[in-house]
Amino acid sequence: MSSRRSRISDEEINDLISKLQALLPESRRRTTSRASAAKLLKEMCGYIKSLHREVDDLSEQLGGLMATMEADSPQAEIIRSILGS
C-alpha cells in the first residue's frame, strides 16, 4: 500500500468550496460571497456550532415535554413514532 496521498486539484477544491457555500443558509451566504476558503470554512464551522446548539435546545425542550406527559398518552405515542423509538 502506498503512503503517498493523491493531490486535489485547484478545480476540485473550488468545486468543494462551492458545494460548502451552497449548504449555508441564504442569510449567511451573503456574508461569504466571494470570500476566501478560510473565511468560508470559519463561517461553516460557526453554522455547524449553531445547529448543534439548536439541536441541544430542542432536545431539552422535547425532554421536558415528554416528562410532563403520561407514558401511554396519545401525544407521547405520536412523538415516539416520529422519533422512531
Automatic annotation (TrEMBL):
Residues 1-51 form the BHLH domain. Keywords: Transcription, Transcription regulation. GO terms for biological process: regulation of DNA-templated transcription; regulation of growth. GO terms for molecular function: protein dimerization activity. The keyword Transcription regulation applies. This is BHLH domain-containing protein. It comes from Zingiber officinale. The lineage of its organism: Eukaryota, Viridiplantae, Streptophyta, Embryophyta, Tracheophyta.
